[in-house]
Write a structure and sequence with these properties.
The protein is of the alpha+beta class and 305 residues long. Helices cover 34% and strands 27% of the residues. It contains nine helices and 16 strands. Strands 7, 8, 9, 10, 11, 12, 13, 14, 15 and 16 form a ten-stranded mixed sheet that branches. The radius of gyration is 20 Å and the shape is globular. The termini are far apart. The relative contact order is 0.12. The structure holds pyridoxal-5'-phosphate.
Length: 305
């Protein structure tokens, strides 16, 4: 016990030190209290832990402000509704808590993570009668990956083995985790998840896009098959405002390989070019002009307070 405890403590100290260097969160919000990150805990019978019975949001922090905060909180409300979970608190105190975690962790550029589970109750599948939702908020510094946005990424395609309600941002990311690791093991950055008809749904933490040779932007319809990304919506709106042709429909891997350009959108990836799929180059193997234009538009959008 003692040895385990000492080793555990040493590990924790090491991890914390490393985390601090990288700008890891030092203060977390847990159920109404601001606590040191290393001491932040939820109960072992939290339903998020036992059943993935919870939802989350990740919001980018840019020059001290939250990027697209309202759409993120609207999506949180939607996820809560689809999960038949009550809102843990009103929006004003929630916004205050998000800001407070950002402030206490001195995050100017990074992300804030918010998780809500159905709460703590003796294990059983049925909804507990009187459990209060658990709320956790953390924040960390994270610079946008400009080098990757400049160079682009390679993706592999994998069968989408997730459940059928991917529109809900639940903490059940098992299939996403497995696919991401498989992509990394294959020397790629991410996986595009493909349905049974051969259509690309999305990435493991991003939405998938192509620009056709006719300069039409294509991304999957926001139905149950994908998460309707807030970055996706922002890029769609920006593109439409600029007069780009935009259509929501599924596209296949073959169509992506024949496309002029491909890219992903997401809170942490912003607009990142995809330059190879399953080892084959897309758009001549380099980022294209439409992707570059959308990157500039999105950065300007994220910069707005
Ligand atoms: N699709 C999935 C599966 C995701 O997990 C995410 C983000 O984490 C996205 C798409 C992109 O969504 P957003 O732009 O809101 O970050």
């Amino acid at each position: 016990m003692l040895v385990g405890g000492v080793v555990g403590l040493r590990f924790l100290v090491g991890a914390t030190r490393k985390g601090l260097v990288k700008g890891m969160s030092r203060i977390a919000y847990v159920n109404g209290r601001y606590v040191p990150h290393r001491a932040a805990q939820v109960h072992i019978e939290d339903r998020g832990y036992q059943f993935a019975d919870g939802i989350y949001e990740v919001v980018a922090v840019r020059h001290g402000h939250l990027v697209d905060e309202v759409p993120h909180l609207d999506r949180l409300d939607r996820s809560l509704g689809e999960m038949r979970m009550a809102a843990p608190m009103a929006r004003a105190p929630l916004r205050h808590a998000l800001r407070e975690v950002i402030r206490r962790n001195r995050v100017a550029d990074g992300i804030v993570y918010l998780q809500v589970s159905r709460g703590v109750a003796p294990r059983g599948h049925a909804f507990p009668k009187d459990a209060a939702p658990s709320v956790v908020i953390t924040a960390k510094r994270l610079a946008p990956n400009y080098a990757q946005m400049e160079k682009g990424i390679a993706v592999i395609t994998l069968p989408d083995i997730r459940w059928k309600r991917r529109d809900i941002k639940t903490v059940n990311l098992t299939a996403n985790v497995l696919a991401k690791q498989q992509a990394l093991d294959a020397g790629a950055y991410d996986a595009w998840l493909v349905d049974e008809a051969g259509m690309v749904n999305e990435g493991t933490a991003s939405n998938a896009w192509i620009a056709t040779k006719a300069k039409e932007l294509v991304t999957h319809t926001p139905d149950y098959s994908i998460l309707n990304g807030i970055t996706r919506i922002a890029v769609k709106d920006l593109a439409e405002k600029e007069g780009y042709k935009f259509v929501e429909r599924p596209f296949s891997k073959a169509e992506a390989l024949a496309a002029a350009e491909a890219f992903i959108t997401g809170t942490t990836s912003w607009v990142t070019p995809v330059i190879a799929i399953d080892g084959k180059p897309v758009g001549g193997g380099k980022p294209g002009p439409l992707t570059r234009a959308l990157q500039r538009l999105y950065e300007a959008h994220a910069d707005l307070p």
